[in-house]
Amino acid sequence: MDIPANLKYTEDHEWLRLEGEDIAYVGITDFAQGELGDIVYVEVDTEGETLDQGEIFGTVEAVKTTADLFMPVSGEILEFNSKLSADGDDEPALINESPYEDGWIVKIKLSNPDELAELMGADAYSENIP
Amino acid sequence: MKSTPLTEKHIELGARMAEFAGYNMPISYAGIKEEHQAVRENVGVFDVSHMGEFFVEGPGALDLLQQITSNDASKLFPGRAQYSCMPNKDGGIVDDLIIYRMPDEHSSIGGHAYLLVVNAANIEKDWKWIQQHEGYEVKITDRSDEYGLLAVQGPKATAVLQSLTEVDLSEIKFYHFTIGDLAGIPDVIISATGYTGSGGFELYVHNENMVKLWDAIFEAGKESGIAPIGLGARDTLRLEMGYCLYGNDIDDQTSPLEAGLGWITKLKKGAFNSSEIFQKQKEEGIQRKLVGLDVQERRVPRHGYIIVDGDGTEIGHVTSGTQSPTLGSPIGMGYVSLDHAEIGTQVFIVAGKKQLPATVVKPPFVQL
Fold first, then answer.
1. A8-113, CATH topology level
2. pTM for this predicted structure
3. pLDDT band for position A1 (50/70/90)?
């Protein structure tokens, strides 16, 4: 199980990678993609919207199940990874293959960076998964 | 949690395991899509040992089965199998099952001998239900914990298994079976049945022979792209064919006529559990029907999602849904009111805030 040390994590198995002061990439963890299995579609129709921490920003469809995606922190959805999107390259399986790199889901602008303190580090997250 | 004789093998193979009906079962090995494709194109092996096996024998066996099951068990002869269901007394379904008529000499008390194969999740419920039918000269034995079951399915299944037995498998027609040696194991029930639509066999053996059987089949199939298949792909394979899954598409509340199982509901055979209710439904018509749903969206319908008409009025619910690995698009099944059940009707499936447009179709979803 890959849990990079430089990322922040949520109990819902999202990760967040901070770029600069208030820009971040968000995706789902290696554990999450493994639990979901073959991912066949990612829907994010919140681009341009500002959402609160914990709000649903999108949905992942795997063959077996559907999972909502939750905002790890409050912020604006700046970009939906075009490699995943149906309007772009439409390769949702990148989340299975590369959950922390090519399979990032959205780029966000944090509206309240203080919330970062509520997220888990790699050690705490690793204790959060079975 | 119970194990099957192969549970350790699945873990060694790196399967994702999960509890299903009280058993520690493999959900997937290489991934649902890859396993699905292996069955459609080559051959796959499923450990479905969690299924229940009841033996019913005796002079009253046929009369009991005629009372508790909907299909006409009198049509069975030794070597013939039949898909059927057990109605409850309120017009619903206790379970769906396969009935095998065994050779008469398998009965220790004369009369006929039958094997009933029931769903794992229903073993206890079925057992209690059957026991409630008294006054038949029968002996009923639950051998679920003694028997293992492997399904070997796919276009190359027959060729792979043929290399392991003297029995001419090409002679066993669909829903027929024979009992013979396979892989050096005596008395294997070799049944031309399955839950995938891709052809092949289901093999019933005693637990102590399961590992030997599994190993022999994988050795025989290594040139044929043979693969172990988990319950995940079992579900996508059956759903592409429109086969019902108990607990999803049929249950204690659904009538076999509503579920499209009129073909196993033989009202002419004489009275059986709920036959009067079904007769009335046949004469007066049913209120809802299980239909196939072809979804014109990328979102996947799931069990329990509400179905509405163009005005947003609720007309039914989804019972099963998945991404079809063969089609690369979402498919589903669900009950809709009769006036929306016609093929080609446009309906909408409520998925959170979205409404997914879908067309009513007649399964199977894929042509093999």
1. OB fold (Dihydrolipoamide Acetyltransferase, E2P) (2.40.50)
2. 0.94
3. confident
